[in-house]
Amino acid sequence: MVQSKLVHFDEIRNNNWKSFFLFVVFMLLIGGLGLLIGLIWGNLYFGLILALVFGFAYALIAYFAGGNMLMALSGAKPVTKKEYPHLYHTVEGLALAAGVPTPKAYVIHDPAPNAFATGRDPNNSAIAVTTGLLEKMNREELEGVVAHEMAHIRNYDIRSMMIAAVMVGIVILLSDFLLRSFLWGGMSRGGGNRGGGQLIFILIGIALAILAPLIGEVIKLSISRRREYAADAGAAVLTRNPNGLANALRKISQDPNELRNTNKATAHLFISSPFRKKRGWLRGLFTTHPPVEDRIKRLEAM
After folding, report:
1. Residue 82 CA to chain centroid, in angstroms?
2. Residues 230-248: pLDDT tens digits?
3. Is-contact 271 148, C-beta < 8 A?
4. Residues 63 and 82 reside in one and the same domain
5. Which parts of the chain are beta strand (E)?
6. Which range marks the domain in which residue 191 is found?
7. 207 shares a domain with 134
8. Does 267 share its domain with 203?
9. Active site includes 143?
């Protein structure tokens, strides 16, 4: 028990550092994009301040309201004990077992079985499951899925996951603005004294505008796969039944339906990739989740 608590606190400390690291790296990336925008429009300070103020304000809003924003983006609706008593009691019981406040419960009306957790900390957290998950999972399997999401909440994974989703969104918006600035001929606003260096700046700017979202995705994925294994193990500890989650993952991966209300910015939040229909070498390279087969093997070996 003591060892389990030490591992738990290590996870929290590691995730707090990851959250800080993510914020710093993304702000540097946002600052770089801002400098290029300022260069195009003829004022470096203007571009840098614009990008940093926009990025910081957006991040601040998302930090306090990001959970609600992600729920709205996913089409999730809050539920009561009367509407979904089994889900409500499962969330309540596993929160007690995990030693965290009971998260708010949400349901997404979608036939694809899936689930995710979000929020900035255990005191401000929520768990959403699809109607497909509720219909297709038995009691043990539903407990395994909810326990997996509860482990994310207890380990503060939800904070780094939300920051990553928000920051990638900011980088994509600024990159798009940078590319549009080139198309609008913004470089000419800075004057004609750049000479042959103008082409170099244009090429660097275009390269960064194209690569920045990719860099953001790589940073996001660097924390994504490992935390899934940790949450699987946490779920097995909470339920004392690793087979429940293993069977749930098997059902989810074999289901033919694909989530409708999701995108690349939120895909890493779900217990299983919502884009599993789309195969290929490139997709496998940037997948947000470890292979389901590996996760099932680890659970069955416990």
Report:
1. 30
2. 889 899 999 999 999 999 9
3. yes
4. no
5. 76-78, 104-108, 115-121, 124-130
6. 2-69+159-222
7. no
8. no
9. no
